[in-house]
Structure formats: structure tokens, C-alpha cells
Amino acid sequence: MDICAVVMAAGEGTRMKSVHSKVVHQVAGKPIIRWVADALLEAGCNEQVYIVGEKQEEIRDILGENVAYVFQEQRLGTGHAVMQAAPFLEGRDGYVIVLPGDSPMVSAKTISKAVDKMNEGDYGAVVITAVAEDPTGYGRLVRDFEGNVLKIVEDKDCSPDEKAIKEINSSMYVFKTSLLLSALGRLSAQNAQKEYYLTDTIEILIWDGNRIGSVVCDIEDTMGVNNRKQLLEAGKIMNRRILEKHMENGVQIIDENSTWIHHAVEIGQDTTILPGTTLMGNTRIGKECIIGENTRLDGVEVGDGTVIDYSVATQCIIGSDCRIGPFSHIRPETKINDHVTIGAYVEVKNSTIDDYTRARHLTYIGDSTVGRNVNFGCGTVTCNFDGQDKVGCIIEDNVFIGGNSNILSSVVLGKDSYIAAGSTITNDVPPLGLGIGRSKQVNKDEWVAKKNRLRGANYIKLDTKRSEL
Ligand code: UD1
Ligand code: CA
User: Catalytic pick from 20, 80, 246, 361?
Assistant: First the structure.
């Protein structure tokens, strides 16, 4: 069976108040139009043509060249939009699936159900409908006493009786391609909006003696995104579906309202996601991890048994059994192996860190290679920028770095060496050596007494003075 699809996406999206095309806005990390394209692919429909308007470049960037595009110069309605695809449809004798480009919730299941319905009965078209609590704004399905579809009437053209109908047109259909083409040629724009309505093809097909089938789906699946509020709603619905999928796989979500997970994220069994967590891009988390609270991971691969608390990580790899946070920042191109601790106010960028290394507090590691079992004292800084280039340092296995040390660009700290606290290390330190890079301490005996600087006895006087100020 020859099945292709026409997706209507030439709309200006005026109600969105955006410089971008409506259909490129994201829902759960995926552009709306990509959701539609993916649902079609999943339903087995590879041949897709998109009706595009002025902002077509953005759509082409997302969908690429595996689909076809037709430019609709003037927006004269949904019927006119589909008419633009006539050259693409002529000569085909199978079915054509028609979808609106602004409905991210459309599922492969719904599309397949409609195609199956076409196969079951001898229908000219199948309309996908839903029952809406508040059908305002939607086209209504008008049926006869036996329940046969008679026509679709747009909200603005409805009589009071028709307005009361709760079954709405989702704007998703399957047509016999040849019949659709013949009906499109006979559309007129004599209606409230002076537009060529695609919905009128249904009545034309009935006049021609065809039967129209229908498939009722969940109203959520038909949801169109026309404005910011609907984009928020669609995001919420999609997010809830994603959370449910993860819970079915054995992931524990603690708060559905503050946990946001993008569509492509993978999470292993018995991992817990705490409130305030956002997981983005192609983040992959292993088993038995605890992520959050208040953590954002974007494109991060995490092993098993790792805990990440109050932290931000982007485009990096974090191994198994690590302890990250609170308040860590792991930046792109970082690879952290297993059993590593990255603690409070520690930033790591473009570095590799091997097993069992610890940087528990106030440290910056940039562009560096760090071995196993290294200890970063509080306040260690790899001075990776020499004013011209970014070059980090090499810190070999088992190195101990005392607190508040600076390790300059290109320096190599040899295996098993020590760095004295408070050092600025400008030269390599040999294996097993001790690097001290600070001035020697001088003590002056009895200096306080000689200078009459004793503070202890004076503190009340000093405090009174301060309150006078
Ligand atoms: C349409 C249906 C309505 C249905 C509703 C479901 C018609 C006449 N009405 O109304 O019955 O209940 O969807 O959401 O079909 N588009 C073009 N070119 C045009 C006009 C529209 O490409 O000239 C595209 C839009 O970008 C959009 C889709 O077609 O993706 C639907 O158009 P829209 O204006 O949103 O139709 P609705 O008023 O929502
Ligand atoms: Ca719409």
C-alpha cells in the first residue's frame, strides 16, 4: 500500500508572539514538528511532504532533506495548504495521511488506528476525532441518527445546535489519495473566515457517495499548540507521559511537578530523581543513582550508583559510584571515572579524572589530566589560561595537593608527589618529590607586646567605639 503524508505547517503562528515558526518551539526537548515527523515514521510512513511558509528555513533545518517541502505563498486556509501538495500526490493510488504541524501529541498508535480503519471499511476518508469538554474553537463532527459522519463545521460557522456538539475534528485524517485530490479541486471559500477549509472535503466526498469513517482518540493526543499557554500545557502533558514511562521502568520520581525530563533521556532501574531536577538532551543515567535535588544534567552520561546533588553538568561523562555536589559545576568534555568525589564549589572543565580522586571543596580543574587517587586540597586552582592559550596540567596518580595551591599551565606533578599547602607551582615536580612554592614564614618574637597591640583586653573598648561609629 502506497501511504504518504502531508503535514500543514505554513501557519504564521501569530498567536505565539514569536519571531520563530510556531512548529519549531520545543516540547520536552523536541521541536513540535519533529514530534509529528517521528510519529509518522513510527507509524511506518516515510514519504512526508511539509507545507511551509515564510519561516521554512527553520523547519528545513530540523527535518533535513529526507522529507519534501512545498512553499505555500499565500495562506488561504487548510484546504489551500493541502492543495499545494497536489503535484506530490498526483498519480498515487494509496492513502494520504494529513496532519497539522502544530500537534506534538499525535501518536503513531492513533495514526495506525486510522489507517487500519481505512483498510477495514470501504471508506473515502477517516477523520480522527476526540471529545472535548470545551470544544470552543474546534471544528465539530456532525453525525446522522445512525452515527454516520455527515460533515465538519468550523466553530465560526456553527449554528447554536452545532455549537453544542462536543465531538471535535482533530485536523488529522487519512484519505484515499485520488478522492482527496478530486475534492480539493472543488473547495470554495464561502464561509465565515473566507478560507478554503480542508474540512469541507469530507462533505464533498459524502456527496460523491463515499463513506467516511472516524476514530475517536484521547483529547490530549489532538492538542494543537497555538499560543504560549498551550505550549506550556503540551509540555506538562508530555513531561507527565515521560515520567510515567520511567516509573514503569523502575525509576523513582519524587515530585512530578518539579521534575522535567526530555524525551531522549534514559534512566536505569532503582535510580531516584529528587525534586527540582531537569534532565536534558541525550542524558543517560545508570542504575541505583540518586539525582537531585535541584540538579540539571544536559547530555550527561552517568554510571551506576552515583549521587549528584544540587549540581549542573553539561556534555560530560561521570562514572559509577561517584559523589558529585552539592554545588558542583561539570562542564563539557569532562570525563570522570569511578569512585570520584567532586564536592562543593568545584568546577571541572575539559579534563579527565581517574578513579578514586577527590576534590571536595572550592577547586577549579580545567583542561587537565588527573590520575587515580589524587587529593585536591581545598582551594586548588589549575591555572589553565596563560593569557593566550588554554593549557592545563598533568597530575599523576596518588598526588597529594595541599590546600590553596595554584598549579600553572603545562606543569606535570609526578606520580606519588606532594605539593605543600599554599604553593604556586610553576615547574614540574618529580615523582615521589615534594613541591613547595611559597615564601618562607618569618616569626617575630614579642612583636605584639613591643608594639602595644594587645587586643584581648581592649575588646570592650573597641566594641563601644564601633557602636559609636
Ligand atoms: C483546524 C480545523 C478544525 C480543527 C482544528 C484542530 C480547518 C478549517 N479547521 O482549525 O476543524 O478542529 O484544526 O486543531 O481545517 N495551515 C497552513 N496553511 C494555511 C492555513 C493553515 O499550513 O493556509 C496550517 C497551520 O500552520 C496549522 C494547521 O494548518 O499547522 C491548522 O491550521 P490552524 O489555523 O491552526 O487551524 P485551526 O483554526 O486550528
Ligand atoms: Ca491549530
Answer: 361
Q: How far is the CA of 138 from the centre of ligand 2 (A)?
A: 8
In the reported structure, the alpha carbon of residue 16 is separated from the centroid of ligand 2 by a whole-number distance in angstroms of 11
Give 204 Cα–ligand 2 centroid separation in angstroms: 22
CA–CA separation, 105 and 225 (whole Å): 10
Q: What is the pTM of this model?
A: 0.92
DSSP state of 377: P
Contact of 359 with 365, CB cutoff 8 Å: yes
Distance of alpha carbon 307 from alpha carbon 54, whole angstroms: 47
The three state secondary structure string of 382-447 is: EECECCCCECCCEECCCCEECCCCEEECCCEECCCCEECCCCEECCCECCCCEECCCCCCCCCCCH
Q: Whose CA is nearest to atom 13 of ligand 1?
A: 171
In the block, cell 511539509 appears at 50
Separation of CA 225 and ligand 2 centre (Å): 7
For residues 270 and 333, give the distance between their C-alpha atoms in angstroms, rounded to a whole number. 28
pLDDT surpasses 70 at 364:
yes
State how far the Cα of 462 lies from the Cα of 468, in Å rounded to an integer: 10
Dihedral sign (CA 343, 346, 352, 357): negative
Answer yes or no: 339 catalytic.
Answer: no
pLDDT in tens, 53-87: 999 999 999 999 999 999 999 999 999 999 999 99
Domains along the sequence of the chain with CATH: 2-222 (3.90.550.10), 251-440 (2.160.10.10)
* Spatial contact of 281 and 264, defined as CB atoms under 8 Å apart: yes
Helices 56-63 & 32-42, crossing angle to 10 degrees? 40
User: In terms of C-beta density within 10 A (0-12 exposed, 13-18 middle, 19 or more buried), how is residue 426 classed?
Assistant: middle
pLDDT, tens digit, 9 for 90 and up, residues 180-204 = 999 999 999 999 999 999 999 999 9
Mean pLDDT, to the nearest integer, of 330-352? 98
Q: Please provide the size of the chain in residues.
A: 469
Ligand 1 pocket at CB < 6 A: 8-11, 51, 72, 75-78, 80-81, 100-102, 138-139, 152, 154, 168-171, 197-199, 224, 226
Which atom of ligand 1 lies at the shortest distance from residue 52's CA? 22
